[in-house]
Write a structure and sequence with these properties.
The protein is mostly helical. It has two domains: 128 residues, Arc Repressor Mutant, subunit A; 97 residues, no CATH class. It has 13 helices and five strands. The chain has a three-stranded antiparallel β-sheet. It has a two-stranded antiparallel ribbon with strand order 4-5. A hairpin with a 2-residue loop joins β4 and β5. α11 packs parallel to α13.
Length: 287
């Protein structure tokens, strides 16, 4: 997933299992869910030599770590394929997004028919919705998982990259408006009104990103919030997302917005009419 981001829950540093690992194995565990091959499903191919080269650990240290993780039920590794059991649970926090559910489904469908794939499907069918057959990966499985998460957690403000511990609580879900209760904004003014009233601007900016850039993997809430702060506020980032949606840049959209924002600041070319978006300066594009 080009331009994707993985979250690290702060509780990882107080988790008993993680604290008991050696420094090498702590590095390996974090590498497994943050390397470029990883994806939201947690199931991907990873040759030992690649893991050794990218992590800086010896092949022997990687093997020993994988054996330890497998014995503890955290990670399974078979024939060059790895499954990090907690990655989906702790990183796919916006399962209300159809795009994310389809992305996960597409990822699994492209995995060869290997034992780990069958275990992955059986695992999520059995713990979430046993009525789905083992050979079928169904989006409603993820929908029900989302509902369970929402029942267990309260909505709270996302202020940074907040992500997975091996056994800790999942990050808070997106502050999405339930389907049917509010129409999707279609104009820039409607998006600005939504942000004006928002209690969770990073989540609503992710929602805006999904609407304006269909087919792109949505950024993590922490990354979205960080970029908004660097640009001077959620309003400025919303303006750049809107302006660039007609001709979407290739690669990381938020990085592109940062470049445009910095260029405008350096050249003194800020455009639009300044209005206030709560406690931050907001620039309207006039669209």
């Amino acid at each position: 997933m080009a331009g994707s981001y993985r979250q690290i829950h702060t509780k990882i540093w107080t988790d008993d299992w993680f604290l008991d690992l050696t420094p090498e194995h702590k590095l390996l565990f974090i590498y497994l869910f943050s390397n470029a091959r990883s994806n939201l499903s947690g199931l991907y191919d990873l040759p030992l030599k690649v893991a050794s080269f990218e992590s800086g650990l010896s092949v022997e240290a990687v093997k020993a770590g994988l054996e330890r993780f497998a014995a503890d039920g955290k990670v399974l590794y078979e024939e060059g394929w790895i499954w990090i059991k907690s990655l989906l649970r702790y990183n796919a926090t916006n399962l209300s997004s159809v795009k994310i559910r389809r992305h996960i489904q597409s990822t699994i469908e492209h995995v060869p028919d290997i034992p780990l794939k069958r275990q992955w499907i059986e695992h999520y069918n059995s713990i979430v919705n046993p009525r789905y057959p083992i050979d079928t990966l169904s989006i409603p499985i993820l929908q029900e998982q989302e509902q369970e998460q929402e029942q267990e957690q309260e909505q709270e403000q996302m202020s940074g990259a907040d992500a997975p511990s091996p056994d800790g609580d999942p990050p808070p879900p997106a502050d999405d408006v339930p389907e049917g209760e509010q129409a999707q904004p279609t104009t820039f003014q409607e998006w600005s009104d939504l942000l004006q009233a928002s209690k969770n601007r990073p989540a609503d900016l992710v929602r805006m990103f999904e609407a304006l850039y269909p087919g792109r993997d949505p950024p993590a809430f922490g990354y979205m919030g960080k970029v908004a702060r660097q640009l001077g506020g959620a309003g400025r980032l919303a303006e750049l997302l809107w302006q660039n949606s007609t001709r979407p840049p290739t690669g990381d959209v938020l990085a592109y917005c940062l470049q445009i924002g910095k260029r405008g600041k350096d050249n003194g070319n800020g455009t639009g009419t300044h209005i206030k978006l709560a406690d931050e300066d907001y620039i309207s594009s006039g669209n």
